[in-house]
Amino acid sequence: MFNLLLLVASFLSFLSGFISNDPSSIQMGIAILVVVIINIIFSLFQEYRAEKAVQVIKSLNPHQDQGHQNGSNEGKIAVTDAVPGDILASKREIECQPTCDKSVL
Fold first, then answer.
1. Other CB atoms within 10 Å distance of the CB of residue 32
2. Cβ neighbours of residue 64 under 8 Å, at least 6 residues apart?
3. What is the pLDDT of residues 47-104, one digit of tens each?
């Protein structure tokens, strides 16, 4: 949204520079366009790095786990199929006692 506002300001600066034959308005329009281009480059770079970070985090999560589902030992269970009540091997503590410290969670 901010880039769009800057593009409108650049257009108006170019327009006023060409109508009044003022080179400083044209220079201002060029400067605003340079700021927009730099902002776009930084935004794309940040988006790329964020997407890479999300992919790394997704790769850390297991896709399957050993466990019991519906009371039977089914062996490997897809993590996306796990529902509350299933017992998975990666979950070390199924039920927490009242004396448990949950502040870290």
1. 19
2. 76, 77, 78, 79
3. 999 999 999 888 876 666 666 555 556 667 666 666 666 666 655 434 444 565 656 6
Residue found by looking up tokens 């327009």 in the block: 15
Q: Model-level pTM?
A: 0.56
Assess if residue 99 is contained within a domain. Answer: no
Residue-wise pLDDT tens digits, 29-48: 999 999 999 999 999 999 99
Residues 6+ apart with CB under 8 A from 70: 86
The answer to whether residue 40 sits within a structural domain is yes
Structure tokens at 61: 């999560």
> Into how many domains does the chain fold?
1
12, exposed or middle or buried, with CB in 10 Å at 0-12, 13-18, 19+? middle
